[in-house]
Specification:
The protein folds into 2 domains: 162 residues, Aspartate Aminotransferase, domain 1 (Alpha-Beta Complex), CATH 3.90.1150.10; 272 residues, Aspartate Aminotransferase, domain 2 (3-Layer(aba) Sandwich). The protein is 37% helix and 16% strand. The structure holds 4'-deoxy-4'-aminopyridoxal-5'-phosphate.
């Protein structure tokens, strides 16, 4: 720990916190478990920042990476190609919503978003629509930390400091159902919120390149959720006004919301789809940006027209990452993961639902394999606890003392476990969560 703190600067961390709370060195991982050097174990209920799908140290993915390693560790993807990236692209085109025909690669979620924004903007340039230079995003959205991705996000904690550096974007009220009236359905509320989007697109269509959304769950924005009907409307309206729809499924892709891709629940195909995190089963940094043949063709021309998409990253389409992704896709194809998850998500709900009666829980919500529990100071009017009180931290610490890695987002405790979690482990997760919430909400 001391060696760590003398040389490391950790992500998303106020390093001074580690004067009070030690950083936890992990020795090994196995299935849902992480184990430290003192033999303490932690159930990874948040899949190590939402990346892990089939457990740590998964034999099938391990073997695939080892085999790839003995064959080819890396080659540049410009002018050259390799078997794993071709096979992965074939699978992704087949598995993602119909109409996405070409795969472009990047190496993390944020860089996938950057590529998507540039691709959309550049498409309109290539189509002689030079006036199109704006992006529309939802309030409370999150798309990553690089400057373009941060520009289309709306979580003040991450964004505010950098505001002077960012692109000007149009932010539209989110369909997030937390604020619906009691008795109002998710569908009715989300559709009601669409009127704001409709008006914005109607008024500014000439200037807008694309609308970017996180389908169904705004994950970093406190796991706020909405109804698929919003996405269906959005698809129709983007078509009507000649605007791209970018679906950021970096977090929700690969089964998290109950379907392989969240867009399926709205029966839509975005113009651009961003994938990362679970793409490699949580093993290696890789991202894919899928798009339609229409967008691809707008770049396809003689070199001298200078219409090509000259965007690249050194590790684009890295073979080890592609091998991990292919092994992950095998795991989906070889067993009915989505069907099995349907049962698991019902079980998760059964365990979380009683917390709805807790005097300091405003809402328990779920989309598939994602469950969130929102702690509030005042249940009647949903007044949040002041952020300075760091109530979530109490839940985190209670978790660590009880074999559990829970990492609340502010006052929102959530579960996003690997799909190999058992009912018994969910029982344990629920017990520790309930105790943690009691501990966090009892303190004055
Ligand atoms: N988009 C979404 C929806 C995300 O949740 C995240 C990461 N939490 C990103 C983009 C950025 O991905 P990365 O952290 O790999 O840059």
């Amino acid at each position: 720990m001391q060696r760590d703190l003398s040389v490391l600067w950790h992500p998303c961390t106020q390093m001074k916190d580690h004067e009070h709370w030690p950083v936890i060195p992990i020795k090994q991982g196995q299935g849902v478990w992480l184990e430290d050097f003192d033999g303490h174990r932690y159930l990874d209920s948040i899949s190590s920042w939402w990346v892990n799908l089939f457990g740590h140290n998964n034999p099938h993915i391990n073997t695939a990476i080892k085999q790839q390693l003995d064959q080819l560790e890396h080659v540049l993807l410009a002018g050259f190609t390799h078997e794993s990236v071709i096979r992965l692209s074939e699978h992704l085109v087949q598995l993602t919503p119909q109409g996405l025909e070409k795969c472009f690669y990047a190496d993390n979620g944020s860089s996938a978003i950057e590529a998507a924004l540039k691709m959309s903007f550049h498409y309109w340039q290539n189509c002689d629509q030079q006036q199109k230079n704006k992006f529309v995003c939802l309030s409370n959205s999150y798309h990553g930390e690089t400057l373009g991705a941060l520009s289309v996000g709306d979580v003040a904690l991450y964004k505010q400091t950098y505001q002077p550096l960012l692109l000007e974007t149009v932010t539209v009220t989110s369909p997030d159902c937390f604020n619906r009236e009691s008795g109002e359905s998710w569908e009715a509320y989300s559709l009601k919120q669409f009127t704001v989007m409709e008006k914005t697109l109607a008024e500014q269509a000439e200037q807008i390149c694309a609308v970017i959304v996180e389908p169904l769950v705004q994950c970093a924005g406190s796991m706020r959720m909405y109804h698929p009907a919003y996405l269906s409307k959005l698809r129709q309206t983007c078509d009507r006004y000649n605007i791209h729809l970018i679906a950021d499924e970096v977090a929700v892709g690969f089964g998290r919301t109950g379907t392989l891709f969240a867009c399926e629940q709205a029966k839509i195909t975005p113009d651009i789809l961003c994938l990362s995190k679970g793409l490699t089963g949580g093993y290696l940094p890789l991202a894919a940006v899928l798009t339609t043949d229409t967008i691809y063709q707008a770049f396809y021309d003689d070199y001298t027209t200078l219409r090509a998409f000259l965007h690249s990253h050194s590790y684009t389409g890295n073979p080890l990452g592609c091998a991990a992704a292919l092994a992950t896709i095998d795991l989906f194809k070889n067993t009915d993961v989505i069907g099995k998850n349907r049962h698991l998500s019902q079980y998760l709900w059964q365990k979380a639902e009683p917390l709805q009666d807790h005097p300091h829980v405003a809402e328990v919500r779920q989309h598939g394999m994602i469950v969130a529990i929102e702690m509030v100071q005042n249940k009647a009017n949903k007044t949040p606890y002041p952020w300075q009180e760091r109530r979530g931290l109490t839940v985190y610490q209670h978790g660590l003392q009880n074999e559990m890695l829970l990492r609340p987002l502010g006052n929102v405790v959530y579960w996003m476990p690997p799909y190999i979690i058992t009912e018994e482990q969910i029982d344990h997760l629920a017990t520790v969560t309930i105790e943690g919430i009691h501990a966090a909400t009892q303190a004055a």
